[in-house]
Structure prediction request, 388 residues.
Amino acid sequence: MSQQALGGQVRHDASPDFTHDEKSRQFFVQSVKVHIAKELQPAQKAVYEARVEPKFRREHNRSPENVHEVRTAMMRDPFTQMWSALKRDVQEQMFYTVAEGIERQLPALVEKAKAVRARPDKLGSLSLDPSVRVPRYNSAVDIHCKPGGYHTEVVEDDVLAGAEFERTLNLHLMGLLGPHDDDMGQSLARWAKRKFPGLKPKRILDMGCTIGNSTLPWLDEYPDAEMVAIDVSAPVLRYGHARSESLGTPVQFMQMDAEHTSFPDQSFDFVVSHILMHETSNRALRNIFRESHRLLRPGGVMLHLDGPQYHDMAPIDQFIPDWDVHYNNEPFITTLHQLDLPAVVEEAGFEQGKIFEDFAPSQTVKSPPGGYVGNRRIGNWYVVGAQK
Ligand SMILES: C[S@@+](CC[C@H](N)C(=O)[O-])C[C@H]1O[C@@H](n2cnc3c(N)ncnc32)[C@H](O)[C@@H]1O
Prediction:
């Protein structure tokens, strides 16, 4: 197991090796992202207050009333247009520059993952099912401009989408999730342990696990539990399994659709997810909540983490996550954040009084309250859930 850091990110036996020039291009992309997040994004509010809102008021005799009106008005302002074009362009550059370095060494990465799978002393497992259909909400667009999404395979036993996800997640969030990119899992698991001190889970399910970066910290909090992680996409699961074995963590990775899994009723004590909800659809979300209810033992707990709901945000703050819907191939973000999620949880079969919304304090991210990166309020993770 090797754990040197690459620009603040932990390396392992399945990691890609980037050249000096590749790293240099990656850090350039990251520095532009930092500039946008720290210097240009906060100025959107000032632009709105000084120019956009007064102009709208002169034309309509009122302020913009919702995020759609704010977006339409903001996107006519030259500063916002420049911010938007730069943000979109650097997003595409990030994927191209990382994919280029990974494609160059793809045969070696496939072999590294295979070698881990062949180890006799494996801690966990990988179970792929080619009959699992990638849902249309995953395949219709390249989600957040990730070419080919999570599922596309370009070679046999492909791991490209997983290796690319690991590197781009770290670059995109500017290392804010910590060296293992696991702040969401750490934060949710620690919060869960405090909130449900009597729950001693035997089995935990992580839905939409991608490479398991948020899955692994659940075992730090609950070392005696069996950790199961599912995703519809094979290349991310292959990479995630190799990564998790290399980091010495026992996880059972399975290719399954979270809307309809093949686990028996009442198989788990926790059913959790980390930023899965905003990448699904209205119907899928309802199916995932119903499936979570079916899979929980009585007393078990469902926890789904994502960006904050719009109801406690001003329309100008909603504009930042809403931008991703229109310019970054994230079709469901605004629809999700406008839903009455506790009501959707109740429709899935959970009892009123056992349903909650809360914020899990981030374990690694230190930022002033109200700071945003993309659609995420840094410092707290929104959680919706229920106890069965
Ligand atoms: C934003 S990523 C999740 C990131 C990861 N959980 C983390 O903590 O960084 C969304 C993942 O959900 C998967 N996914 C989407 N719909 C799914 C479904 N119905 N069932 C299982 N996985 C799904 C995608 O393949 C993708 O890997």
Notes: Residues 1-5 have pLDDT under 50 and may be disordered. The CA atoms of residues 283 and 338 lie 15 Å apart.
